[in-house]
Design a protein that fits this description.
Number of strands of chain B: 0
Largest interface: A-B, 24 and 27 residues
Oligomer: heterodimer
Largest sheet of chain B: none
Shape of chain B: elongated
Helix content of chain B: over 70%
Largest sheet of chain A: none
Number of helices of chain B: 6
Chain lengths: ~400, ~150
C-alpha cells in the first residue's frame, strides 16, 4: 500500500511539476498566433521527454551515475567540456527566466515592479535549496503546481472559443497571417519548452539523490509515462485558452499578465488565485530544479562531491556553483532584459542543444556494461532513434530559423 | 595597436546596431507600418478585455494595473519604433500621417485606463477604454489594406 501511495504521489508530482515559465510562455504565445495548429508538437515533445527522462532515470538507477558523469566518460573530457559549456549556458538562461518569471508573478499580486523582487526571489530559492530536504522540496512544489488545473476548467468555460480552438488542432500549417518559417520556429520553441535538458539533469540526479534501486524503476516509469503526459495536457490547456480568447481578437501574448487573463475572465477571482498560486509553485519548482542542475552538471563533470544527500559542507563546490549561478541569473534579469524574451531564447536554444545530452544517454542506455539486463528494448530504440533524427534536424534548423524569422517576430 | 583597432571596430558595430535600421523601400516601410498597427491592436484589445474583466469584479486591482501597464508599454514601444523610422520617399509620408495619430490616440487612452486602474477605479475602466474599440477597428483595417 505504501508503494502504491508513493507511486501515486510521484505521478502527481511529475504532473504538477511539468509546466514551467517556458511552457507557459511558449504555449500561450503559440495559441494566440496559431490556435491549436501546433498542438501536435506538444504531443511529440511529451513523447520525447518521456523517452529521454525514462532512459536517464534508468541509466542513473542501474549505473548509479548521473547524466553528466556518463557523458564525460562516453564523449571524453574535451568534447564533454564543450557539451558542458553549452548545457550550462542554456541552463543559466533558464535559471534567469525562472527567477524573472517568479518576480513577474509577485508583481501581478502586489503591483510593485518585478525588478524589486528579483533579489528576494533568488534568496528565497537559495534558502530552500540550502535548508529543505530534496524529497520535500520536490513534492511540495510539484504538488502545488497542480493548481494550474484551473486552466483546463477555464478552457472548458471558454465556450464557443473552446470548440473552435479544438477544431483548429486538426489543421496543419500556419494561419493565413503567418509564414511557414514562423510556424516552424514556434514548433521548435514548443519542442524546446517540452524537452528542456535541465529536466533530464534533475531527474537523473534525483534518482541518485533518492538512492533508487532496481525496484524503483517502476516509480521511474510511472512518473514519466503517466505524470509527464498529464503535465502535457496542462500545456495544451494553456494553449487552448490562449487560442480561444486571444486569436479571434488579434491579441498576441507578450507578457505573463496576459497568460492569466483567460482564467480570470472565466473563473473570476477564485480562479485567478489558483492560477497565480499554480504559476508561482510551478516556476519556483523549476527555479529549484534549474539551479540544482547548474550545480549537478559542473560538479558531475569535474568529479566533485555533489548532491543534497550529503551535508552541504561536504559538497561545498556544488553549492558554490548553485550560489554563483543564482547571482548571475539575478544580474541577467536586473539588466532589464525582458524575462519573457530570455525565456523565449532559453527554450529555443534548449531545443538546439538537445542532441548534446540525448546522444550519450541513448548510447549508454544500450550498453549492457552499464545497464546489465535493463538496456533499451527494440521498440524503444526504434522510437528513440526516430527522435534522434528529429532532434538533429531541429538542432541544425534552429539558428537559421531564428535569424530568418527575427526570433519569431 | 591591433587590439585597439579591433576594439574600435567592435564599438562601431555595436553603435551601428543600436541605430534604427533604415527602410530602403516603400514595401518595407509599409510592412513596418502593418507590424505597428497589429501591435497596437493587440495592446488595445488586451486593455478592452481586462477592462471588462475588472468591471465584472473578476480580477484584482494590482493584476489589472500591471496588465494595462504592460499593454501601454507595448503600444508606446511600437509607436516610438515606427516614429523613429525615416520614410524612404515622400510618397510614404501619407502612411505615416495616417497611422501615427491613431496610434497616439490609442496610447493616450491606454494611459488613462492605467491611471484609473492604479487608482482602483475598476468599475470605470470599460467606459474609459471604450474609444479603443473604434481605434482598434481602424488599425485592423489599416493593417489589412497595407498587409
Amino acid at each position: 500500500m505504501k508503494k502504491v501511495f508513493e507511486i501515486f504521489l510521484g505521478i502527481l508530482t511529475a504532473f504538477g511539476g511539468f509546466v514551467d515559465i517556458g511552457d507557459l510562455v511558449a504555449n500561450s504565445e503559440t495559441g494566440a498566433r496559431f490556435g491549436m495548429r501546433l498542438a501536435w508538437v506538444v504531443v511529440v515533445g511529451v513523447v520525447g521527454i518521456v523517452i529521454f527522462a525514462e532512459m536517464s532515470g534508468r541509466v542513473a538507477t542501474m549505473s548509479k551515475r548521473p547524466v553528466f558523469d556518463v557523458i564525460r566518460e562516453r564523449l571524453g573530457a574535451r568534447l564533454a567540456l564543450v557539451n558542458l559549456a553549452a548545457s550550462f549556458f542554456i541552463n543559466l538562461l533558464t535559471v534567469a527566466a525562472e527567477i524573472g518569471g517568479l518576480a513577474l508573478v509577485i508583481e501581478l499580486v502586489t503591483g510593485i515592479n518585478y525588478l524589486l523582487w528579483v533579489p528576494l526571489v533568488a534568496i528565497a530559492v537559495w534558502i530552500v535549496l540550502w535548508k529543505v530536504r530534496f524529497s520535500i522540496m520536490e513534492k511540495v512544489f510539484g504538488l502545488s503546481g497542480l493548481a494550474l488545473i484551473v486552466t483546463a476548467l477555464a478552457l472548458w468555460r471558454l465556450d464557443p472559443g473552446f470548440v473552435d480552438a479544438l477544431a483548429s488542432a486538426r489543421r496543419f500549417g500556419p494561419t493565413s497571417a503567418e509564414s511557414w518559417a514562423t510556424y516552424a520556429f514556434f514548433a521548435i520553441a514548443l519542442l524546446g519548452a517540452a524537452m528542456t535538458p535541465y529536466e533530464v539533469f534533475f531527474f537523473s540526479s534525483g534518482a541518485v539523490e533518492e538512492q533508487w534501486t532496481r525496484k524503483d524503476l517502476i516509480l521511474n516509469r510511472a512518473n514519466v509515462y503517466i505524470g509527464f503526459p498529464l503535465g502535457g495536457l496542462l500545456s495544451l490547456a494553456i494553449m487552448g485558452c490562449s487560442a480561444a480568447l486571444f486569436l479571434p481578437r488579434g491579441v498576441s501574448v507578450e507578457h505573463l499578465s496576459q497568460v492569466t487573463l483567460p482564467v480570470s475572465a472565466t473563473l473570476g477571482k477564485v480562479g485567478l488565485v489558483f492560477m497565480l498560486y499554480g504559476i508561482f509553485a510551478a516556476i519556483f519548482s523549476a527555479a529549484l530544479e534549474t539551479a540544482l542542475s547548474a550545480g549537478y552538471t559542473v560538479a558531475q563533470f569535474f568529479g566533485w562531491q555533489w548532491g543534497k544527500f550529503v551535508r552541504s559542507r561536504e559538497a561545498a563546490r556544488f553549492h558554490l556553483v548553485i550560489l554563483l549561478s543564482l547571482c548571475v541569473a539575478v544580474l541577467i534579469v536586473l539588466s532589464t532584459l525582458d524575462p519573457i524574451a530570455v525565456t523565449e531564447y532559453s527554450i529555443v536554444l534548449s531545443a538546439a542543444a538537445l542532441p548534446l545530452t540525448y546522444i550519450p544517454i541513448l548510447i549508454v542506455a544500450n550498453d549492457p556494461a552499464y545497464m546489465k539486463d535493463k538496456t533499451n528494448s527494440m521498440f524503444l530504440n526504434a522510437i528513440a532513434f526516430g527522435f534522434l533524427v528529429l532532434l538533429v534536424i531541429v538542432s541544425i534548423a534552429t539558428i537559421p530559423l531564428m535569424i530568418w524569422t527575427k526570433g519569431g517576430a | 595597436m591591433r587590439l585597439r583597432s579591433a576594439l574600435q571596430i567592435v564599438a562601431l558595430v555595436i553603435l551601428a546596431a543600436a541605430c534604427v535600421a533604415p527602410t530602403r523601400t516603400e514595401a518595407a516601410y509599409q510592412a513596418k507600418a502593418v507590424d505597428t498597427a497589429e501591435a497596437v491592436v493587440s495592446a488595445a484589445r488586451t486593455v478592452l478585455l481586462i477592462g471588462r474583466v475588472a468591471a465584472a469584479d473578476r480580477s484584482f486591482g494590482p493584476s489589472v494595473a500591471v496588465t494595462v501597464a504592460d499593454a501601454e508599454t507595448d503600444a508606446a514601444s511600437a509607436r516610438d519604433a515606427f516614429a523613429s523610422i525615416q520614410p524612404p520617399a515622400p510618397s510614404s509620408d501619407a502612411i505615416r500621417q495616417d497611422l501615427l495619430p491613431e496610434v497616439q490616440r490609442a496610447v493616450d487612452v491606454i494611459e488613462l485606463v492605467r491611471i484609473a486602474a492604479r487608482r482602483d477605479q475598476l468599475g470605470r475602466l470599460p467606459a474609459i477604454a471604450s474609444p479603443l474599440e473604434p481605434i482598434a477597428g481602424w488599425l485592423e483595417r489599416f493593417a489589412t489594406r497595407y498587409g
